[in-house]
């Protein structure tokens, strides 16, 4: 596909927490270079560090000038692809990042708003994924680790520098080989997760505004 064609920036993370793999990085590799709804998928890998993830994300946006940014991260223990709705301006690291930093109860960006909502049409994406048989859900928490920090940094950066560019975050479960180490842990195959992310991206490109559909929770 010509380099001048519009593109989607798709980011994943390097392994962390002592693991040797990260399904987010694998999904990005699977979809890299694909063409979805007339847009080329441009890949980028982010470091699992609070200081480095934001800088790498901004550099990737500047490099490819995307129409859409979708960040993907691992959420071990979840059973479905989670479409994140809210990014918090809060870091409370349960474990150290890959640089050894473990900040507690500090903002992602000092002086920025308390939170941002995604600008991805997550209900339309959810509808498309589930219609294709991909396990998916809406999520109201991206945690307080590097995934949430990258999500918040993405939204703040787009809001303040590139307001016409939409972006958001998706969490994916462990791969089967990761879940095998934890009794009864849920997982999804790489093929299923890659299919779901691709379908979600297509729905996001087709829906500038989200659909009106029930997606809330009682508690």
UniProtKB/TrEMBL annotation:
One of its GO terms (molecular function) is pyroglutamyl-peptidase activity. It catalyses: Release of an N-terminal pyroglutamyl group from a polypeptide, the second amino acid generally not being Pro. It is an enzyme of class 3 (hydrolase). The keyword DNA repair does not apply. Its main location: cytoplasm. It is found in: Cytoplasm. GO terms for biological process: proteolysis. One of its GO terms (cellular component) is cytosol. SUPFAM superfamilies: Pyrrolidone carboxyl peptidase (pyroglutamate aminopeptidase) (SSF53182). Its EC number is 3.4.19.3. Keywords: Cytoplasm, Hydrolase, Protease, Thiol protease. Pfam families: Peptidase_C15 (PF01470). The active site is at residues 84, 147, 171. Removes 5-oxoproline from various penultimate amino acid residues except L-proline. Homotetramer. Belongs to the peptidase C15 family. PANTHER family: PROTEASE FAMILY C15 PYROGLUTAMYL-PEPTIDASE I-RELATED, PYROGLUTAMYL-PEPTIDASE I. This is Pyrrolidone-carboxylate peptidase. It comes from Chiayiivirga flava.
């Amino acid at each position: 596909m010509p380099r001048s064609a519009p593109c989607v920036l798709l980011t994943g993370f390097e392994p962390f927490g002592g693991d040797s793999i990260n399904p987010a990085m694998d999904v990005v590799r699977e979809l890299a270079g694909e063409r979805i709804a007339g847009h080329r998928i441009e890949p980028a890998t982010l470091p699992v560090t609070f200081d480095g993830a934001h800088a790498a994300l901004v550099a990737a946006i500047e490099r490819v000038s995307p129409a859409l940014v979708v960040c993907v991260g691992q959420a071990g223990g979840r059973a479905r692809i989670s479409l994140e709705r809210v990014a918090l301006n809060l870091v409370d690291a349960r474990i150290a990042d890959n640089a050894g930093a473990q900040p507690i109860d500090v903002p992602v960006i000092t002086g920025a708003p308390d939170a941002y909502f995604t600008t991805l049409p997550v209900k339309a994406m959810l509808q498309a994924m589930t219609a294709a048989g991909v396990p998916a859900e809406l999520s109201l928490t991206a945690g307080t680790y590097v995934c949430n920090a990258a999500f918040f940094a993405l939204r703040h950066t787009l809001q303040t520098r590139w307001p016409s560019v939409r972006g958001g975050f998706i969490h994916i479960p462990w791969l089967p080989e990761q879940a095998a180490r934890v009794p009864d842990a849920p997982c999804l195959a790489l093929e299923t997760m890659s299919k779901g992310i691709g379908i979600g991206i297509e729905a996001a490109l087709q829906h500038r505004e989200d659909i009106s559909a029930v997606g809330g929770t009682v508690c």
